[in-house]
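[Discussion] Sanity-checking designs against the backbone

I'm trying to build intuition for which residues belong where. Below is a structure token string of 177 positions. I'd appreciate it if someone posts a full sequence so I can compare it with mine line by line.
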């Protein structure tokens, strides 16, 4: 079993956890916004923290959604260029863009990690309920790191396709998430 086979297996497990977290977060957002609305308009006792929590959870949801899309190699591409070249050239372009994306995402990981550490050191808090901001921001380096790994492995997967070890349909999932 090759390293890319192991990656595909681990990626499926991680993706399942990400989907579970996404469902939990969406449910929490709906519950919090609904409760906040009831408190404000029916009981005339607004929950001042509800909007803050819902907003922060939406940020987490966005980054988890980014992970789910990346796990299936579904990301922004310039398709019109790839449509005009041979298959082998297309796969080489995919390898190159995956490597470049991985490098940039790793740099974003390093920068966001420094930002989280600075936030923790300064004692930043979410003012609505005095929650440590670094715990909210931790999704940034986690997301960028996972994406960097996924794009690095995407380069290996595209190399497998280029060499005929895999089919494109085996690694790019076109169905609904």
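Best answer:
Here's mine. Compare freely.
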């Amino acid at each position: 079993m090759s390293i890319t086979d192991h990656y595909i297996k681990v990626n499926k497990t991680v993706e399942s956890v990400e989907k579970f977290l996404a469902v939990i977060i969406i449910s929490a957002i709906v519950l919090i916004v609904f409760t906040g609305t009831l408190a404000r308009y029916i009981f005339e006792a607004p929950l001042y923290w509800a909007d803050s929590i819902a907003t922060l959870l939406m940020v987490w949801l966005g980054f988890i959604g980014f992970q789910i899309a990346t796990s299936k190699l579904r990301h922004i591409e310039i398709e019109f260029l790839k449509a005009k070249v041979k298959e082998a050239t297309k796969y080489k372009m995919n390898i190159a863009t995956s490597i470049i994306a991985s490098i940039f995402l790793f740099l974003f990981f390093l920068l966001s990690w420094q930002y989280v550490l600075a936030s923790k050191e300064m004692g930043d808090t979410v003012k609505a309920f005095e929650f440590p901001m670094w715990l909210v921001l931790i999704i940034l380096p986690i997301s960028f790191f996972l994406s960097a790994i996924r794009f690095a492995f995407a380069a290996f997967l595209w190399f497998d396709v280029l060499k005929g070890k895999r089919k494109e349909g085996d690694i790019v999932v076109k169905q609904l998430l």
